[in-house]
Every structure is written in C-alpha cells, then in structure tokens.
# Entry
Amino acid sequence: MPAMTAPAASDLLHAWEYGRNRHPLDRALLLYALALPETNPDLLADQPLGRRNAALLQLRLETFGPRLRAYLDCPQCGERLEFEQSASDLLDIQPTASFPVVVDGFHFRPPNTRDLAQIVGEPDVELAARSLLQHCLLPTDDTQSIDDAMLPSIDRVESALEESDPLADLSFDFTCEMCKHVWSAPFDIAHYLWEEVEAQATRLLDDVHHLAQAYGWREQDILALSEVRRTAYLERVLA
Ligand SMILES: [Zn+2]
# Structure
C-alpha cells in the first residue's frame, strides 16, 4: 500500500458534504477516494472489497490513529461490552489463498462495490447472496449461463473467499462476561469511519462558525489552519 497522509480538513468536509444523504456504499467510495486522491474515482468501485477496506483502515490510522474502539450490547442479556482493535493489526492480516477462488471447478473473483450495488434492492438475503455469486462467477469455456442450482453452496464459496480476501468482510468473536454468551459480529470499517468523519465534520463546522464570527475570516482560510493553531484561536475566542 502506498504511503498515505491524513486528508486536509477541507477534503474531509467535502467528502462528508457529498456523502451525508447518500447510500452507505457511496459513502464508502467517497472515503476510498479520500484515501486515494490520485486514483481515478471511477475505478474504485471495481476494486475488491478487501482492498477498499485496507485503504479505509489506513485512512483511519492516518486521520484518527490506530485504536478502533466501539461498544456493543450482548444479544442475550444486554450487557454492554467495550470492543477494541488495532487498525495496524488488521492491516497485517494476510490472505492464505490467492484469486481466483475455485470451488467444485467454478472460478470466482473477489466481490467489489459494483457487485454489492447490484444487490442492494434485494430484500431476501439468500437470493442476494446467490446473485452476488453469479456476479463474481468467472466465465469458463462453457459459455452457457449457469443455473443457481448448479453452483456450490454459498457457505463454501464464502469461506473460500474469506481465505483469499480476509479484509473484505471482517467479523470478530465476542464472549459476554455476564452471561458467557459467545457470538460473532461483523465490523464494518466503512460505517465506523463514516461516523467518525461525520463527527469531525461537525466539529470543523463549529470551528469555522466561531472563528468566522470572531475574526471575520473566510471558511477556506480557517480550514487551512493547522489543528493546533485552529484550537489555539478557538480557546481565545471561547475563553
Ligand atoms: Zn450477556
């Protein structure tokens, strides 16, 4: 992965502005573009989800640091658990197999954002998963369309995909200390990071509001200040 620096405050605010009323998949792509500003954004939707998530983890690390903290409730007794992961540790997870994934002679490529966008409207989880398999099925010599019933089970393809693209669909195991319930829950870095970007955007808008009111500075000039300097002026204004 190329070296990455934290995005400028104005770029972060821009991503939030365009994403706030958009679908989570579009938000993830906006964050992906924020992580890789040199890449043509049209190409990002075709990248494997694991590669997208790696870029988002790297962006998170550069922008807000490596410690990912969240809370979740035990599904059995409701006890609140604190959850902590390191973005650097997650970035170290390596695939144990390569693409294409081969199951029962069928070849599959890794799913990407465009594939997910095609199944967004499908309320039936099973049908959505089968449709995703069809999207990712690579053509073979036999060009005729392959019936869903001929494909291997979703579970088997999914576990094979996980070996080749472990960051595509992260989930963690939890044990409740109160009731000893054990379960697995997904961790969606795109959703997690979007919430942080949203909170940061709100703080930036507040900063602009206070500093513009006090000094008459323009928005772009306030956003161009380093965080240290912006905070120092804010302390004076709000003192
Ligand atoms: Zn519990």
In short: The pocket of zinc ion is lined by residues 74, 76-77, 79, 176, 178-179, 181 (CB under 6 Å). The chain has a mean pLDDT of 92.
